[in-house]
Inverse folding.
């Protein structure tokens, strides 16, 4: 029987690229999506080995149904790979971010990831499988106005470290992938939605954070210029699932390496000042 992998968040971007890659490599691929139209597109683009799977990682019933389906299909062979890719990005000044939005950020990126992992660990134990968590350099280097997202990825870092050490004596490997800017539709979505975060603030909030919000919008608009192709992430996910000695962490992209290097070398005050000067340079000047 072919090796099998479950990948969450396969509607586009990294998840979809991973699903198609492992399908071409001969794996049995279960590609988690939430919308029927995304499932149909994957069926058209993939081979009969690629099985779109309705999966909402914030819904316990959806996770349980997916686990039962795969358990029945895979049986004693178990699951050889789990790629936790599903995630969302929320932003805004923390002074004004609604707590429900902050909770939603963690519900998906942290609690949903753990819930899916817990549900499929019995199959992973049976299949001597591996886990790959898709994090972000934002989990180590924080950006203003992206506090909810950065906080969730920072939590994912710690959770991944703990789970890796817990599972290693049991023969299961976990790797964390930390990309910088990747060429996916997330940047187009962020550019469309970014300004509305500031627009929804009260007038005093707009006065306090409007310049920083405009700078962030500029940064997001420029992001695709320095993005690495999605295939760069796919390659490290493949290595994490197939190499004899997978790495605990994979940094992807020059910008991720540069940001982490600066953070490790500079005093915290200097790093804060560097980031804020970058934002001031992008902010539109008053007429």
């Amino acid at each position: 029987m072919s090796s099998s992998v479950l990948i969450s968040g396969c509607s586009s971007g990294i998840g979809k690229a991973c699903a198609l890659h492992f399908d071409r490599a001969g794996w049995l691929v279960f590609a988690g999506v939430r919308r029927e139209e995304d499932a149909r597109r994957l069926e058209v683009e993939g081979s009969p080995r690629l099985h779109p799977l309705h999966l909402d990682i914030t819904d316990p019933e959806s996770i349980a149904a997916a686990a039962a389906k795969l358990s029945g299909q895979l049986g004693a062979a178990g699951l050889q790979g789990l790629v936790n890719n599903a995630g969302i990005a929320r932003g805004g000044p923390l002074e004004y971010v609604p707590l429900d939005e902050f909770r939603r950020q963690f519900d998906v990126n942290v609690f949903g990831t753990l819930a899916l992992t817990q549900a499929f660990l019995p199959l992973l134990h049976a299949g001597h499988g591996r886990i790959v968590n898709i994090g972000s350099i934002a989990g180590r280097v924080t950006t203003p106005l992206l506090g909810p997202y950065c906080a969730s990825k920072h939590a994912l870092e710690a959770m991944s470290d703990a789970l890796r050490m817990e599972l290693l004596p049991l023969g299961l490997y976990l790797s964390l992938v930390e990309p910088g800017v990747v060429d996916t539709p997330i940047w187009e979505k962020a550019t469309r939605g970014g300004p509305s975060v500031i627009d929804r603030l009260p007038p005093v909030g707009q006065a306090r954070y409007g310049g920083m919000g405009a700078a962030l919008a500029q940064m997001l608009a420029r992001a695709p210029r320095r993005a690495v192709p999605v295939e760069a992430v796919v390659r490290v996910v493949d290595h994490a699932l197939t190499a004899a000695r997978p790495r605990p962490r994979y940094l992807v992209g020059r910008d991720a390496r540069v940001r982490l290097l600066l953070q490790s070398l500079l005093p915290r005050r200097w790093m804060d000042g560097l980031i804020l000067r970058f934002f001031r340079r992008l902010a539109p000047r008053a007429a």
Summary: The chain has one domain: 4-186+227-265. The first strand starts at residue 4 and ends at 7. Residues 31 and 52 are 5 Å apart (CA to CA).
